[in-house]
Amino acid sequence: MTSNKEFYNSLSSEYDEMIDIRSSIENKGKLLAGFIKKDDKVADVGCGIGIDSITASKLGAVVDAFDPSEKMIAQAKNNAKLFDVKFSAYNYSASEIPDIFFGKYDLVISLGNTFANIPNIEFDKSLVNLVKLIKPGGKIIIHLLNYSKILRDKERIVNITGKGKFQFVRFYDFAESELQFNILRFEKENLSNYRLLSTNIYPYTFEDFASKIEQIRDVSIEVFGTLKLEKYKPNDSKNLVAIISKQ
Fold first, then answer.
1. Cα-Cα-Cα-Cα dihedral sign, residues 186, 47, 113, 161
2. Which residue ranges make up each domain of the chain?
3. Tens digit of pLDDT for each residue in 105-142?
4. What is the mean pLDDT of the chain?
5. Tens of pLDDT along 147-160?
6. Cα–Cα nearest to 159, from 141, 143, 181
7. What is the percent of the chain with per-residue pLDDT over 90, rounded to a whole number?
8. How far is the C-alpha of 35 from the C-alpha of 56, rounded, in Å?
9. What is the 3-state secondary structure (H, E, C) of 117-182?
10. Higher pLDDT among residues 15 and 200, named by residue
């Protein structure tokens, strides 16, 4: 078991093998095109290897990217060069973003299950910081897996992916009060060559976000099941998308 930061630092060099970055950027472009206008200022909180930052940049946005993993930030910068885009990247978690960034952004995105990696003691400050980042009239898009369904059904397998010679299995272990996230990497032609990484994550539900947003003035929240704004069904939706708006 490793800390969340160590987990993603260890994973950073392998992330491009685990997913198809080009198709991910293409798919995200279709999903985010309706939210991003040319010259919008966008903050990508929990940028990872930079897929959403690259996507937003290609859509014409001016992007600042944030992530607590310095090695993920380094990988995001490398990928920006690979895809011939530019954005600024900063090594901050959501709860650590300094106030010099507050009030700068038309849109804040925190996608790819980022919030599930934020410890309980940092949840409130992280969410409040995202609200502080946006201008009046701005929006926040938070995407994570639908843990209401996952916890109810005890769904262990998140997905199985891989390209080249390695396969990756992402899966959960359920404990009484914790959810352990695991990534097993193994070589397809040599199963004895494997590595298992594990860390704790935090299975937030829509109610966690809604109860905190209710305490913040001039802010409202909507919930959807996808970035296509399809209806959220607590018992059936695979994902949870919370859209927070500031008056």
1. negative
2. 4-146+203-246, 149-201
3. 999 999 999 999 999 999 999 999 999 999 999 999 99
4. 94
5. 999 999 999 999 99
6. 181
7. 88
8. 10
9. HCCHHHHHHHHHHHHHHEEEEEEEEEEEECHHHHHHHCCCEEEEECCCCEEEEEEEEECCCCEEEE
10. 200
**β-pairing, 105-110 with 41-45?**
parallel
Closest to 227 (Cα-Cα) out of 104, 109, 116? 109
**Domain 4-146+203-246 bears CATH identifier 3.40.50.150:** yes
Q: What percent of the chain has pLDDT over 70?
A: 100
Angle at 134 between CA 101 and CA 45, to 5 degrees: 65
Q: DSSP characters for 46-81?
A: T-TTSHHHHHHHHTT-EEEEE-S-HHHHHHHHHHHH
Contacts 24+ apart (CB under 8 A), 182-187: 183/11, 183/18, 185/14, 185/18
- Residue 29 near residue 56 (C-beta atoms within 8 A): no
Tokens 């390695």, residue? 166
- Give the length of the chain: 247
Q: Which pTM was predicted?
A: 0.95
Paired tokens of 5: 């930061």
In the structure encoding, which two tokens stand for residue 100, read together?
């010099």
Element (H, E) at 213: helix 206-213
Mean pLDDT of all residues in 217-242 = 97
Phi, psi of 87 (to 5 degrees): -155, 160
Q: Which amino acid belongs to residue 207? A: E
Token pair in block for residue 154: 């005890």
Greater confidence (13 vs 59) lies with 59
64 close to 116: Cβ distance less than 8 angstroms? no
